[in-house]
Structure to design on (221 residues):
């Protein structure tokens, strides 16, 4: 399949590709979670849900592998470095009890993927303690064992967990593409800058394309 992408066409074979949705969890998208405790307006992020839902439906219909990630820490916070918990001046810190349970802790209501994008049987759900999806998750081994070489990304936030994951993927030899209307930041100028820097210098990190280009490629088969 070939996607009309920037800086040039992105080619992949469906059996060797995965759709990766980064951290579409209530902590970042709904009020009362980690995103809001950091001082952000979370309503910006909701806007990408319909486009992301449409991509997920089309990808599932085509039979492609789906990977969902969650930024999640163990209840004892043994995988949360003090530097991460102490950074900034949030109203609630990681592990504190908020309106959706303990902030960024696995198993809590706020840590679940939003209902609109809920994982189904056969999809991978990866809890990651870092911003990148490969650090301390074993995901590289899992993807390699399934023969996955191409990763199509959506999720939040563009310049934090999505970009970090794309860079980690790039260094591990994956060909990555970011779906521009399926990712968002609390800072629109950071999203725009991240998209530009990913595809700069001849796809130094990877490709970017609107989801319409993926739909067109899937329809063409
Ligand atoms: N704060 C922010 O923009 N993002 C994060 O903390 N995590 C993710 O991007 N998932």
């Amino acid at each position: 399949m070939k996607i009309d992408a920037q800086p040039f066409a992105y080619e992949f074979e469906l059996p060797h590709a995965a759709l990766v949705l980064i951290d579409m969890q209530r902590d970042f998208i709904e009020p009362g979670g980690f995103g809001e405790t950091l001082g952000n307006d979370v309503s910006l992020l909701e806007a990408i849900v319909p486009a992301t839902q449409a991509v997920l439906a089309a990808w599932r219909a085509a039979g492609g592998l789906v990977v969902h990630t969650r930024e999640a820490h163990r209840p004892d916070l043994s995988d949360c470095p003090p530097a991460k918990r102490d950074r900034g001046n949030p109203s609630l810190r990681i592990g504190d009890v908020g309106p959706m349970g303990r902030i960024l802790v696995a198993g809590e209501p706020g840590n679940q993927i939003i209902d609109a994008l809920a994982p189904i049987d056969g999809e991978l759900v990866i809890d990651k303690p870092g911003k990148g999806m490969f650090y301390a998750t074993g995901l590289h081994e899992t993807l390699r064992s399934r023969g996955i070489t191409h990763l199509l990304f959506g999720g939040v936030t563009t310049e934090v967990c999505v970009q970090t994951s794309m860079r980690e993927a790039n260094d591990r030899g994956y060909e990555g593409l970011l779906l521009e209307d399926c990712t968002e930041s609390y800072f629109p100028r950071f999203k725009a800058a991240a998209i530009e820097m990913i595809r700069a210098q001849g796809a130094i990190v990877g490709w970017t394309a609107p989801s319409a280009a993926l739909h067109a490629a899937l329809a063409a088969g």
Remarks:
- The mean pLDDT is 97.
- The first strand starts at residue 2 and ends at 3.
- The CA atoms of residues 67 and 124 lie 5 Å apart.
